[in-house]
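From the thread on structure requests for the teaching lab: each student submitted one protein with a one-line request. Submission from student K.M.:

"Model ATP-binding cassette sub-family G member 4 from Takifugu flavidus, tokens only."
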Amino acid sequence: MDNKALEPDSVSLPMEEPIVCNGGQPQQHLKKVENQITEAQRFSHLPKRSAVDLEFVDLSYTIQEGPCWRRRGFKALLKCLSGRFCSRELIGIMGPSGSGKSTLMNILAGYRQTGMKGQVLINGKPRDLRTFRKMSCYIMQEDKLLPHLTAREAMMVSANLKLDETLDVKKELVNEILTALGLLDCAHTRTSSLSGGQCKRLAIALELVNNPPVMFFDEPTSGLDSVSCYQVVSLLRSLAMGGRTIICTIHQPSAKLFEMFDKLYILSQGQCIYKGSVSYLIIGNDASKVFNNTGFLFFSMLFIMFGALMPTVLTFPLEMSVFLREHLNYWYSLKAYYLAKTMADIPFQVICPIMYCSIVYWMTEQPPEVSRYLLFIALSTCTALVAQSLGLLVGAASTSLQVLQLLTF
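Reply posted by the TA:
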């Protein structure tokens, strides 16, 4: 077997273990693909490889702006990034367009060196680029396959170029990989006739021939339907669980795909804004309640606003005749009347929203955080006070109760 990448003091991992659920049973979501991947496939003909942990420290990358004859300075695409990607983990690099996802992965894969500053370490030691390129693979976003070859023929071409084994061993290896990746049924189909998901799995199978311990994927789910996306990400997770280091960029994954990643590395404008486990990247108590909470907040503010607005709108015209008589007889000024009426209503506009918020906040199982609770009360109280002033304005605009009812309803 080709065992060049195995160091004398390293421990070889078989890299073909099945995905196991919490209960100890293999996952069985997609019968056709994932069951075949998660069977106890031993890949007896795959070269043995040592596990690889990839680490980068203070990684920066700059490019020169403008054409070569008129430079306009430098632009930093990556700024002092550090992180560690371990074996047996599916790592997703995420971020908006232009955040530096592809640039970071190209540097980690060794495709870009000029303009880079910082260190890239392999198992704690400085990376030898030539050796690392032999023990890793990079699968592009677009699957470039020879259109006139069948899936099996393409696999045999890859095996002949990468392995120094007998023909029988290569055939056995190709059969094992095609079976594990759910491609055996289309082994004699030309690559030009394969579906998007099958092309993506075939591209992975071609690189899996020499069992690379580090695999890079540039947006592997791009252009695929939801079922194919799930199959591809399930495959990547299977490969990671087998002992490999799987690193991929991904753009706008669904919630189901998002939960399948072990670690996330999120970029924004060339800087890392989050790195760590997916389980810690949660909005509030439960991310599924975000839209429900938005609706709850909207209707709560609407209820409080009309609760403070309508009594003022409907009662002010009833007092108008008395107010005009007393004001014209110089009992009090307009400012004194407004101030007295506002101060008299303030206790109700404060106490009532607090009572409402204290009930519905806990009734709807909001996060038990004092800051959130106090912020909700403050927002509700301010809404009630503004609504009261608005009610006075609307009530003073017309002396007819019937007109006000038409305006407000």
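TA comment: The CA atoms of residues 157 and 206 lie 9 Å apart. The first helix runs from residue 34 to 38.
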